TrEMBL record:
Residues 366-392 have a biased composition (Basic and acidic residues). This is Pseudouridine synthase. Its EC number is 5.4.99.-. One of its GO terms (biological process) is enzyme-directed rRNA pseudouridine synthesis. Keywords: Isomerase, RNA-binding. Coiled coil: none annotated. The lineage of its organism: Bacteria, Pseudomonadati, Pseudomonadota, Betaproteobacteria, Burkholderiales. Residues 415-424 have a biased composition (Basic residues). Residues 1-55, 362-424 are annotated as: Disordered. Pfam families: PseudoU_synth_2 (PF00849), S4 (PF01479). It comes from the Bacteria. NCBIfam families: PRK10700.1, pseudouridine synthase. Belongs to the pseudouridine synthase RsuA family.
Length: 424
């Protein structure tokens, strides 16, 4: 009878489906097959979603055309360890128990005080009293039921690293239709990616994206002085005087600019590599500084932005997302740097004021030297030049040599001794 029913339904003999055994950390068969087909290349999705430990192994070997000395990981391990240590020692803020229950939507504060007085509210298994304070780590129950509180912590923003190749524009809309860095980014439900700074069309390297506009503003605003590091390849080698000039300051079209650090990384043939650090993000500033000393930049790569470095195994055109732990560690590092900056702000303002005054004095000295360099006779000839052209005054038109007497000239006031005529 069972065979007849199976024949009517068209079902064959039942086979038990077996799931192959997989050790922890071992990839599925589909992943192994995909890796064989792609030759071990990274997929387009964020790499930490695959396996954070194997992310760099899946990226493949480092690019031989990139400069040496790039970072192994995007964020330094000491920053992450410092954030973990701070998380263990931090004290959570506390609030009154009746306020927490009222904020959870269970009633007014007076109602919650009456509820606590009845002895049906417990905190971590202990009967609570009116006036007790609780933190976010405490478990609150009413008659044995857990109270679900609203999270007061803001969600951790997402941060994406992208190795921008040359030939892409950092803009969503381009009238010329050039390739954009936004085209290959993953979708973010309810949010959008914000580019942290810009890179020129021919500049490559690290480009950061985030879903937080406040974080992007914090990283780009000149007030915070976030350090950027670039690898620069120029044609020829810089002289010692040119390197000193680039670190002391060069006058550009939009003001003074300089490199905080400039290191010679060597090179072969006509190409020579330099590594520079700068705390500004003006348009084409690095290229203009080298052009000011007579050097031509043939390749420009940004290798670090703040505490985030470009991993040496991240190929051009690929992206990688920071883990939430790395983002929180970076935010904590930014907070500590901001506190130190606030403490040193008065001294820095005085130094800036002194620098501006010295710049004004230098400009005045240069103008004085230029004035003294002119011929004395030319300066004497220029004195009284407007009166020597026609020999006449610029007001009355009468030559000064005639010594015209203006004592009887009528004035606007009343003449003494003469009364105005009466009207009939």
């Amino acid at each position: 009878m069972k065979k007849t029913v199976n024949a009517r339904k068209g079902a064959g003999p039942s086979k038990s489906k077996k799931t192959p055994f997989r050790r922890p950390g071992q990839a599925f068969q589909g992943e192994r097959g995909a890796s064989r087909r792609t030759g071990g290349r990274a997929s387009g999705r964020s790499l930490h979603a695959i396996n954070p430990g194997d992310a760099y192994d899946r990226l493949g070997p480092a690019d031989s055309s990139m400069p040496e000395g790039l970072a192994e990981s995007p964020l330094a391990l000491e920053i992450i360890n410092r954030a973990r240590a701070a998380k263990k020692t931090v004290e959570l803020p506390t609030e009154k128990l009746q306020k927490v229950l009222a904020d959870a939507g269970l009633g007014s504060r007076r109602d919650m005080e009456a509820l606590i007085a009845r002895g049906v509210v417990t905190v971590n298994g202990q009967t609570a009293r009116v006036g007790d304070r609780v933190s976010a780590a405490d478990a609150i129950r009413i008659e044995g039921r857990l109270v679900h509180r609203k999270s007061t912590e803001s969600p951790t923003p997402r941060v994406l690293m992208y190795h921008k190749p040359a030939g892409e524009i950092v803009s969503r809309d381009d009238p010329e239709g050039r390739p954009s860095v936004f085209h290959g980014l993953p979708r973010v439900p309810g949010a959008r990616w914000v580019a942290v700074g810009r890179l020129d069309f021919n500049t490559e390297g690290l480009l950061l994206f985030t879903t937080s506009g406040s974080l992007a503003n914090r990283l780009m605003h000149p007030r915070y002085e976030i350090e950027r590091e670039y690898a620069v390849r120029v044609i020829g080698e810089l002289e010692a005087e040119a390197m000193q000039e680039l670190t002391k300051g060069v006058m550009l079209e939009d003001g003074m600019a300089k490199f905080d650090e400039l290191h010679d990384e060597g090179g072969t043939g006509l190409n020579h590599w330099y590594r520079v650090k700068i705390r500004e993000g003006r348009n084409r500033e690095v290229r203009r500084l080298f052009e000011a000393v007579g050097s031509v930049v043939s390749r420009l790569i940004r290798i670090r932005y703040g505490a985030v470095s470009l991993p040496k195994n991240l190929p051009r055109g690929k992206k990688m997302e920071l883990t939430p732990e790395e983002v929180r560690a970076w935010l904590l590092d930014l907070d500590e740097a901001e506190k130190k900056m606030a403490a040193a702000a008065p001294a820095k303002a005085e130094a800036k004021k002194l620098e501006k005054s010295q710049a004004r004095l230098r400009a005045r000295a240069l103008a004085r030297e230029a004035e003294e360099g002119r011929k004395p006779e030319a300066k004497a000839d220029r004195k009284g030049e407007r009166f020597k052209k026609s020999g006449a005054s610029d007001r009355t038109g009468v030559p000064f040599a005639e010594a015209r007497d203006l004592s009887d000239r009528p004035t606007q006031g009343k003449r003494p001794g003469k009364k105005p005529a009466r009207r009939g």
